[in-house]
């Protein structure tokens, strides 16, 4: 398998970054839902949010790498059977996913640093609190984080359904290219 993207398929780095981000986002969503229900006496009460923050900040670094890789190794062009509207929807959908993830991570950062304390990343280093003067910062960022997380998970589900539609109904190479195949 090739490292870089080609005109017919995605390379191994793009594929790995795609699935790593997808699994991490759904994992963080699940952990987020679970941890908001923890009570003060739970052994995970402090550990779960710390883990969530550390993984979220790591995801931020991976997303920066993903954007840089996308610039260095552009994705393959859409299959020939994709019309103008399908290409436009694909471009807009990917932009929504990328932008939404960065806004989601920024809102998580604003929640976590609202009290002026930095965020420990797996106990290895701290990301400092740089913006702490927004009125009701934690509450507003918390609402953005919650609603955007739900929106992105739903949108990612629609993204997956669109890939399945391309595979099973349109019978084109949209889905199989993300597994490193050239398709039919």
Question: CATH topology, which one?
Answer: Fumarate Reductase Cytochrome B subunit
Q: Can you tell me the overall shape?
A: elongated
> Order of strands in the sheet with the most strands?
1-2
Q: Can you give the mean pLDDT?
A: 95
Task: Summarize the helix and strand pattern as letters.
Answer: HHHEEHH
Q: Mind explaining what this structure looks like?
A:
- There is one protein chain.
- This protein is mainly alpha-helical and 184 residues long.
- It has one domain (12-177): Fumarate Reductase Cytochrome B subunit.
- Helix content is 64%, strand content 3%.
- It is built from five helices and two strands; from the N terminus they run αααββαα.
- It has helices at residues 12-35, 47-72, 84-113, 137-170, 174-177; strands spanning 119-121, 125-127.
- It has a two-stranded antiparallel ribbon with strand order 1-2.
- β1 and β2 (125-127) form a beta hairpin.
- α1 (12-35) packs antiparallel against α2 (47-72), α1 crosses α4 (137-170) and α2 (47-72) runs antiparallel to α3 (84-113).
- The chain is elongated, with a radius of gyration of 19 Å.
- It starts with 11 loop residues before the first helix and ends in a 7-residue tail after the last helix.
């Amino acid at each position: 398998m090739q490292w870089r993207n080609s005109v017919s398929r995605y390379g191994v780095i793009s594929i790995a970054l795609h699935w790593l981000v997808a699994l991490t986002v759904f994992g963080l969503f699940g952990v987020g839902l679970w941890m908001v229900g923890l009570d003060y006496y739970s052994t995970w009460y402090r550990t779960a949010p710390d883990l969530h923050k550390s993984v979220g900040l790591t995801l931020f670094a991976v997303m920066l790498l993903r954007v840089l890789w996308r610039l260095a190794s552009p994705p393959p062009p859409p299959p020939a059977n994709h019309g103008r509207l399908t290409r436009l929807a694909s471009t807009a959908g990917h932009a929504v996913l990328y932008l939404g993830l960065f806004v989601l991570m920024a809102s998580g950062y604003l929640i976590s640093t609202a009290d002026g304390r930095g965020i420990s990343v797996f106990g290895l280093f701290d990301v400092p609190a740089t913006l702490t003067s927004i009125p009701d910062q934690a509450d507003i960022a918390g609402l953005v984080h919650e609603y955007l997380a739900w929106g992105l998970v739903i949108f990612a589900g629609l993204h997956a359904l669109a890939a399945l539609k391309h595979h099973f109904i349109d019978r084109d190479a949209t889905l199989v290219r993300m597994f490193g195949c050239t398709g039919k």
